[in-house]
Design a protein that fits this description.
Elements lengths: L1 H4 L11 E3 L9 H11 L3 E5 L16 H14 L2 E10 L9 H10 L3 E6 L4 H15 L5 E5 L9 H10 L6 E6 H5 L5 H5 L9 E3 L10 H10 L11 H7 L6 E3 L4 H4 L4 H20 L1
Parallel strand pairs: 1-2, 1-8, 2-3, 3-4, 4-5, 5-6, 6-7, 7-8
């Protein structure tokens, strides 16, 4: 499925940059592709499944017209769809529920799906993650587990332990978000310990580092008020030096107060410029 459509996405060169959903959350899928093309991104990420019941998402699933428009826009611009959001693994998880998301991923030529682990029972969570990987494999998608300090997978070590407990499926992955790295107990050695085969992309933004934040503060910053790379005190230089230099980077910066006075396209420009400055410093 996915292999036939993969050429829609441009080849992934050194540090390919993707416009994440949270950066372009005001855009429909075709609009996000157009903004990415106009501002210098080679890839986009789309949130086609909400992160909670009733939460925002981009309308595309089961809408043939929007899928056609998105595909046409990708072809016209050369921008590819890299990742889709979001699968959450809870206690009553059934991966079959997400088949429409996987089918859309195959149709769009996407490579990865972001996964969150919410089930606090480790054995069941590992079993569910293994089932998810098996369900996704025919669609050519990786299941990229994002550690988040308020979830059942709070840091890099627990993410790696979960993948191993699930049997290290071929399409397993671990997603490193700079904000969650800076606000979890993850160390640079923990990041270096993640096998290269499990790293498919990383997310860049900035914020105040530390492990003293409340559950509510962690979620608010992640979903509403991230900082541009270079504006906070997260060790972005150390983090991206610890990650493979050719890893695709998703620019994920949402800041609702600042976005209230700036349209989506100029905001995407600011986020890309700040990300490039940080990544260029790391490459020196």
């Amino acid at each position: 499925m996915n292999d036939r459509l993969a050429p829609l996405a441009p080849p992934l060169g050194a540090c390919a940059l993707s416009l994440a959903y949270l950066t372009a959350h005001r855009c429909s899928p075709p609009e996000a592709v157009r903004v990415a093309a106009a501002t210098g991104y080679g890839l986009v990420g789309l949130r086609l499944w909400p992160n909670a019941p009733g939460a925002p998402q981009q309308a595309l699933l089961c809408d043939a017209a929007v899928i056609r428009e998105t595909l046409a826009t990708c072809r016209d611009t050369g921008v590819g769809v890299f990742d889709l959001e979001i699968v959450r693994i809870g206690e009553a998880f059934d991966p079959r529920l997400y088949l429409p998301l996987f089918e859309a991923g195959a149709a769009l030529g996407a490579r990865a799906v972001l996964v969150a682990g919410d089930d606090t029972y480790p054995v069941r969570l590992a079993t569910s993650y293994a089932r998810l990987c098996e369900q996704m494999a025919p669609f050519g998608l990786t299941a990229d587990l994002e550690f988040m300090p308020w979830t059942a997978v709070p840091d890099a070590r627990s993410a790696l332990a979960l993948v191993i407990a699930a049997g290290s499926p071929d399409n397993a992955g671990i997603l490193v978000d700079a904000l969650h790295f800076g606000r979890s107990h993850s160390t640079l050695d923990d990041i270096r310990a993640i096998p290269r085969s499990l790293l498919h992309y990383a997310q860049i933004c900035d914020g105040e580092a530390g492990t003293h934040f409340s559950h509510e503060q962690l979620i608010h910053t992640a979903r509403c008020e991230r900082l541009l790379p270079g504006e906070g005190n997260i060790d972005l230089q150390g983090l991206f030096a610890a990650l493979p230099p050719d890893l695709p980077v998703s620019v994920e910066v949402v800041n609702l107060p600042r976005e209230a006075s700036i349209p989506a396209q100029p905001w995407a420009v600011q986020c890309l410029a700040a990300s490039r400055r940080v990544l260029a410093q790391q490459a020196v």
